Here is the input.
Amino acid sequence: MLKYVIKRLLWLIPVILGVCIFIFAIMYFVPGDPASIILGPSATASELAAKRTELGLDQPFIIRLLTYMKNVFLHFDFGNSYTTGNAITSELLVRMPKTLILGSVSIVLALVMGVPLGITAAVHQNGLADRICMIIAMIGISLPDFWLALMMVLLFALKLGWLPPTGVTSWTGYIMPCLALAFAGMAGLARQARSSMLEVIRSDYITTARAKGVSKHDVIYKHALPNALIPIVAIAGSRLAGIFGGSVVIETVFSIPGLGSYMVNAITNRDYPVIEGSVLLIAIVFSVVMVLVDLVYAYLDPRIKAQYEGSKTT
Amino acid sequence: MTNTIAVTENKAVRKKRSQSQFVMTMNRLKKNKSAMLGLFIFIALIILAILAPYISPYGYAAMKMSEKLQGPSLKHWFGTDELGRDVFSRILYGGRYSLSVGVLATLTGLIFGTIVGSIAGYYGGKVDNIIMRFLDIFQSIPSILLVIVFSAAMGAGFDKTIIALAISMIPDVARQMRASILRVRDEDYIEAADAIGCSTFRQITKYIIPNSFAPLLVWATMSVAGAILTTASLSYIGLGIQPPIPEWGAMLSGAKTYLRTNAYLLIFPGMFIAITVLGLNMFGDGLRDALDPKLKD
Amino acid sequence: MEEKENQHHLFHSHAEDGSHGDHRGHQHQDQHQKKEHFLEIENLAVQYSSSGEIIHAVNDVSLSLDQGKTLALVGETGAGKTTIAKSIMRILPDRGAKITAGDIFMGDKDLLNLSEDEMCKVRGAEIAMIFQDPMTALNPTMRVGDQIAEVIKLHDTITKAEAKKRAIEMLNMVGITAERYDEYPHQFSGGMKQRVVIAMALACTPDLLLADEPTSALDVTIQAQIMEMIDNLRRQHNTAMILITHDMGVVAQVADDVAVIYAGEIVEYGSKAEIFDHPTHPYTVGLFNAIPNLNEDTRRLANIKGLPPDPTDLPKGCCFCTRCQYATNECSRHKAGLERIGQNHYSRCSVHMHHEEAADEQSR
Here is the structure.
């Protein structure tokens, strides 16, 4: 098992390097002249030329790529913003905690609300609980998350005044963003949990368990559930991706000063290094989370565990 | 003494067994009420979008400043926006953009993803490895972020959004196609086709793709839904499609500041997005159940 | 035809179609009398419902079994054999399956009227089942030894360590070493998995073992081995067995009595000797004829023409008459009951008997 953990962690490195190269390459081919973005329309030709040299824009692609990677990975230097000229790294560090809180609370909410919802639906298949849960889940995956957020603000902040409409100065400011972000993920997980559970309940080994005299309750929670969790965890990854991506827009809706809003502002201002830096950072965090998901998956599924313990089949 | 009775087969049994896979799937699908409702909703919205120029009471850009920011009324069913444009008309026209972005992006993604996946699956070896590593990198970035990155690089606009969305779909389709090919490639009928001199291209098009069709169909339905949602998000943050084009997400973006005062500007476009996606999801679910009925009862 | 004897009234089924409504609560006259046989199934009827259609899987089946004896349940796929076994254990799917009539008595227990809790105590401890497909019968995320220990611990108040010890004993009894206790099912081959299933079934020394085609999914080379193991182990504890199979060779080896099932009904029932030497129902005759004879040189194997009836639309008369070469007009109109035709031999067809008797007479 340890072997698998190490293998998986080592695999992170080429992936992150690859993501970095990929994002850099895309940004490299963006049309437009960074120098004029920074200096503005009133700059003279020689000022522009000087700026370009300063930024190293006349260097060949490879040199620029390697310089960037060296800066990012060895010095944690993401460069400077085109619009403010400030170091991006410090800004990223200041904003990252807020995004992390938003993201992790949403993930936990999605898991804690979604999986039990799906299992309940499966256990009461075709009953009232099942239908209600599935209608909620169906609506959940169909609503645009930022629109749900806007509607929540409309109701809870503007009409009822219970929660602050924007900002996260107090912890109450996180409630609506996290709920809005978690809702779609929760719905997707519930649907997956339900179908996973139904498929497992239909398995032969569940009949075997019943034939042994295991009580209905234990059949579901001790025999079916551990097996049903495996595909759920496998799917959880893509649901989590939705939360990471969705956080960008949600931060905009609630004016949360996190990585997402940093990125969105940079898009409007064509501040490409900022876009590069924030996407790269989010991608790194996401990859690490995916490694954790893979590890949980390997732990749950004995077939994978055994692969790395070197046992044989006879 | 006994009489012998001619042996007659049970006619009903015989009829059941002769229905093809496709017909059976269609029948199951038709019986599924929510799937049919979803399909109906989606088709209804398409029809509304196509007929927009004929049925909308006003043009989508027709501004009348004297009537700006009015709530829903008999004259303007969904009210007017900050430039005096009729919201209902804009929603009808907006459907054209929102829906077509979703469908076109999915189609493009399917085509290119199929090509990439087929190459990887069929040739295997080094080619496969390289392609898979690329896909791994693609999938290490949450897909919405990927679309944002491409969109940010290319800028806002109808075609550019389609391209960005399509690129982000390629890894998924490629993986599915590759898996199908790996599965089908080793089957006996492919060996037989090879033996009679069937070319690679023909093998892929005539045997492999039709057999991988079913799961991709379900994916495509859900993917159009996802593309519509993503486009709306993109438009909201300044990419995607921008005002004055009445794409539903763009309408939401333009109405941001009016949440407190003219909430209807935000309620209607969002509702339409939700209904469209809901319809597609309901149909997609029904399609999945019809193709694989074990899971139903 | 011999007169019906009252002693074995249980095997006279009612001539009309099998739906009696819900009989499960009714008081049976004999309930307070000591039952003649260890296991008695009376007039069992089971329905499945699927997409609006009702499938009459089991229609008016009555069987009995003595302690320590083996009854072979023979028939083709879909005839209802597994349904009968699952009904005894009451592990039919909750949704879509219903026991619509009948009683099942085992010892002094009225199985169909026990509460779910009481039935849980019976399952695994007094009745056990071995399933057809060993590949999917074991829980993939639970260690093999623990799965055996689980059934032991469920029915006996002992410590975990004790249960583990007994589980290891069971593993040894089926030829698996103790080191493999902690392994997972995917690490075992099909035959080994089936052994684990057998160990699980016999761990609590049940009184009745239901074996549903236990060797069908295994390699031919180990089929005999596994069958022998099952038979030996159950003899040790005098466990009665209902063996579901469509392999007449296995029946010949291990069965004491044989029941032939077709379209959810028993069409012929009797001791092994009677059934093998004097099959009377045309379906049974057809089954035996279908066994290839190694000593003869034939071009085509004999088969029974036609198909079984649609279980959602069973015919009014005899279920087999459309495929039967001895059928008369009466057969399609009137469903015969199981009639006693020998010391321990019952059949649902008198036409064939007459036909054979007439043929015998003519040949004299």
Chain A has 13 helices and no strands.
